[in-house]
Amino acid sequence: MPKQAASAAGGRSRLIALTSLMASVVFLVTAAFSLYIPETRGYFNFGESAVYLSSIILPPGWAALAGGIGSMMADVVLGYYHYAPATLLIKGAEAFIASALVRRRPKAFAGRGAAVNLLLSIPLPILIGLFGLLLYTGTAELFFALPFTPLAGHGTLQLAGAVWLAAASVLGVYLVYANLKRVGDAWTLLSFLSGGAAMVLGYFLYEQLILGVAAIAEVPFNLMQVLVGVSVALPAAHRLRRLSAS
């Protein structure tokens, strides 16, 4: 086999392995933990963060496979069968968009200073705090649902507004640190949020046109899931860039 063909085959094998790994990570992170709040009938999980990390590690098409398949598997295992087909496409599109944008940084963003990047990213902790205070306070039900393992069960807790204020403050401090140390950047944040916007719109259309439910009621919860996912993924994104370079 010529060296060039061998190199191409090796690169493809590596992409297949990484995609399989990230699909498993997306599945586990999504299925392992969910937070359900009876007062609002809303819940969120941390699967979005794994979808965004896939977009850093993998090229767009491969990231779409990891994000879509991993998320769809979680829907099936958790019993949300009616969402599984849509999830495959919507989460795949979310990962594709985030991955494509991350790799197409405009020149205008290349020389951004820390102050400009911070100005562009600071709405994130503010939105986390507001959404948490408005939607996620009161009695909450925790579900630990790693299938086929002893790590399964549920419990209840009281979510106070102070929890979200503390989370927003911690994230705000991190953003200041990340921008001063050039650890994070506004373009990665905007790339994640663009993919998240596609996810919110995709589920809105699916629920409204296919399931026939009042989809607008779910938009705030999907937005919160995006914000939480971005908050978790952003600190790790810069450490994973080197994996996508080779």
Strand order of the largest sheet: 2-1-3-4
Shape category: globular
Q: Determine the CATH topology.
A: Arp2/3 complex 21 kDa subunit ARPC3
Content of β-strand: 5-15%
Please write the string of helix (H) and strand (E) elements: HEEHHHHHHEEHHH
How many domain modules? 1
User: Considering DSSP H and I runs of 4 or more, what fraction of the residues is helical?
Assistant: over 70%
Helical/strand content category: alpha+beta
Cα-based radius of gyration, to the nearest Å: 19 Å
Q: Please give the CATH class.
A: Mainly Alpha
Separate helix tally: 10
Distance between the termini: 21 Å
CATH architecture classification? Orthogonal Bundle
Count of distinct strands? 4
Taking the sheet with the most strands, its summary is: 4 strands, antiparallel
Pick out the low-confidence regions.
none
Give average pLDDT, whole number.
79
Question: How would you describe this structure in keywords?
Answer:
246 residues, alpha+beta, Arp2/3 complex 21 kDa subunit ARPC3, four-stranded antiparallel β-sheet, 10 helices, 10% strand
